[in-house]
Amino acid sequence: MSELVTGEAVALELRPAKLPSRALAVLLDLAAAMTVYVVATIALVASTSSLDQAAQTAIFLAVFLLLLVGGPIAVETLTHGRSLGKVACGLRVVRDDGGPIRFRHALVRGLIGVIEILMTMGVIACIASLVSSRGRRLGDVFAGTLVVRERLPVGPVGSVPPPPPWLAGRFSGLDLSAVPDGLWLAVRQCLTRMRQLDPRVGQAMAERLAADLADRTGAPVPQGVPAAAYLAAVVQERQARDARRAFGHGVGGAAATGGGPVGAFGPAGPYAPPPVDRAAPPTAYPSVPASPASPASPPPAAEKPSTGFVPPA
């Protein structure tokens, strides 16, 4: 992955194209250009038979330059960096800041490409791509461009991990009718990306979201329960209620979350249980009385100011 910084100071992670895929795209572009050139040559031979040899040579040379030099420049300008070969290989030419290229970028790449690709049979372009850390040839260096991959392997869709078994059923009495959809989305995104974040950053985000969620439900976070475990337990409770409303009252618990048995996930990571004095009887979390309105049909609640966790667009 290559990190590019846009003009708005936004870091982009792009995957530069490797030499084999770039070489294949160039070969496909040259094959298409040569095919068009052969067809145009046959048509010109038939239409310029009455001209002298010098005129025919000038016309053939102009058509050659137009198709093999001007053609790729025009195609990359109009398609914003996607020629026929690049489309087939899933590649695209972008600027150094990740934006689409313009005519001047395509012009510089095309003119230098005549030297490093056509005149030297691609030897200079291959050497430059191997030396560059991002696989750029000389045309990319002078034009300020980069060839990146558009088709990336799709990773597994993140799912909310279920809470540990020692929290099962402790939040069945919470009133979730006042929690807005935006807060649910922020909680889900925080839980699914917890392993990708710095531990301190993830813990701070989970604590702020847990405080916001406790404020909306009217019940504080239980003493000694980690914030991430509290969020996961409340999300599981909401999913169980949604499943019961959709499929009947016999569905709920771990089956409603689609994440398998809850006990399959041990109390590791951010869901570790708090230290409990085994000599003292375990304290149960007091159930919060439900609101007069049934949870099956929660009334619309007005949006309250949140803690700043706005889901990304």
Structural notes for this entry:
The chain has 313 residues and is mainly alpha-helical. 48% of the residues lie in helices and 6% in strands. The chain contains 10 helices and 4 strands, in the order E-E-H-H-H-E-H-H-H-E-H-H-H-H. The strands form 2 sheets. The protein has a two-stranded antiparallel ribbon with strand order 1-2. The protein starts with a strand and ends in a 56-residue tail after the last helix. 26% of the residues are buried. The model is unreliable at 5-11, 251-273 and 276-306 (pLDDT under 50).
Percent helix range: 40-55%
Protein structure class = mainly alpha
Q: Averaging pLDDT over every residue, what do you get? A: 75
Order of helices and strands: EEHHHEHHHEHHHH
Put simply, the count of helices is 10
Q: Indicate the proportion of strand residues.
A: 5-15%
Q: Assign an overall shape.
A: elongated
Distance between the termini: 23 Å
Strand line-up in the sheet with most strands: 1-2
